[in-house]
Design goal:
This protein is an alpha+beta fold. It has a domain of 47 residues. The chain is 14% helix and 22% strand. The protein is built from 1 helix and 3 strands. It has a 3-stranded antiparallel beta sheet with strand order 2-1-3, covered by helices on one side. The protein starts with 19 loop residues before the first strand and ends in a 10-residue tail after the last strand.
């Protein structure tokens, strides 16, 4: 039997459950409408967002409800 894991924060070493999804793209590599997704817990939402924002990659931050409602990349 395989245990199903809940989606976790994308911050290095963090195992907390995801509460936010940070939608981003790198305009040098991706079409403008393309979005990649990082998940964040409440503690890492700001630091992950700041990392993406500093590079002008962050497009949108939305609450993460369930894996069924998000495209994880």
């Amino acid at each position: 039997m395989v245990e199903e894991l809940s989606p976790q924060c994308s911050a290095k070493g963090c195992r907390a459950s995801a509460a936010w999804q940070l939608l981003w793209n790198n305009p040098k590599l991706h079409d403008p409408q393309y979005r990649k997704t990082w998940l964040a817990c409440a503690d890492h939402r700001v630091s992950l967002g700041a990392f993406l924002e500093a590079r002008s990659f962050l497009r949108e931050v939305t609450p993460f409800v369930s894996a069924d409602d998000a495209s994880i990349s």
